[in-house]
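lol so apparently i was supposed to do this last week
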Amino acid sequence: MARRLSTLFLPELSDSRELADSTVVVTDVLRATSTIVTALDQGAAKVIPAAEIDEALRLKEELGPECVLGGERGGVIIDGFDCGNSPLEFTPDVIAGRTLVLCTTNGTRAMARCREAAQIFIAAFVNLSKTAEALSQQESISIVCSGTDRRVTSEDVLFAGALAAKVLEGSSGWQPSDQTMIALGYWSEFCRRANISEAALADELASGAGGRNLKRLGYDDDIRFCAQIDRVPRLARLDPQIWEII
Ligand code: MLT
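anyway here it is w/ D-malate bound
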């Protein structure tokens, strides 16, 4: 039987029965999943994704001073939180050995919709190859794009294409879904046009609605950071039972 390589351009398009049989990869390139992978790389003990602000505040109260509370609404730090959602904020002096509770507008909500999944990986360009390597062992994959406020975002679709291309390169027997084929088409058109340089990828990420919003808020450095392919050679796994990313 063919191995299933499916992509959902929005979390709302997911089907819980399908997720239950799949290894799910959640992506929110700008910026939640880039930030989570980076925080782990900088020494965070774990990351707990919270869909809503009250849930994040409750976790902070439970965990006490070892917890760093990060998050945004509309790209801007939430009142009373320790940090926003910039990967550049999570340096070792801020995060090493501590738990990051992160609450974002789209990324951590997308994760909450995938609770039924057999296994969940958190991915972005910064950990593209490590994620693709782990996926090559699987039989059924769903790449879930977070989007922005229920609208499809180009940067997540571009990443889905890059990840699917690596999975197809690395192992055989896959049946890509229609959304996967569209994502693959975008990625291969980008590669032809831009020769995959980091500067070109940063420009491409900046050209979508999410990127334009971050630019407007002055987060140009974050976009460049999120365009660094394989900067972090590690896998990030969200345990669907205990709800922690390590
Ligand atoms: C989100 O989850 O909506 C994003 O990560 C927004 C942001 O870039 O801060």
